[in-house]
Give the backbone structure.
Amino acid sequence: MNAISRFLASEIYAVAGASNRQHKYGNKVFRALLASGRKTYPLNPAQDEIEGHKAYPSISELPVVPAALSIITPPEVTRRVVADAIEAGVKHIWMQPGAEDEQASESARQAGINVIDDGSCILVLLARQS
């Protein structure tokens, strides 16, 4: 099973950079994961709720540890999100285009995490599945 298949086979997801603004990719990714029937939590320290779901400021404050994390944040934020994900025990990380950070990717791989950071977009893959 390849890296993307392993990510998509997870049961619980989180989206770092989820947003209430429907034109933003963080919102689109969050809604796409929900629409595909996946249990998904929004992560955004500046929001209390996103699309009717309680938003969480960080992975450590989620009620469960997500197996998979999609990241749609600026690279400098990605580093912090990945450090939190490593500490929490996340198994799969997908850095969406523009969120990639070489240092964060290397740290996650050294921690044994399945990392997707090749410019692939989860929205494209989820659209193909539906």
Q: What stands out?
A: The radius of gyration is 13 Å. The first strand starts at residue 12 and ends at 16. The CA atoms of residues 2 and 109 lie 15 Å apart. The chain has one domain: 3-129.
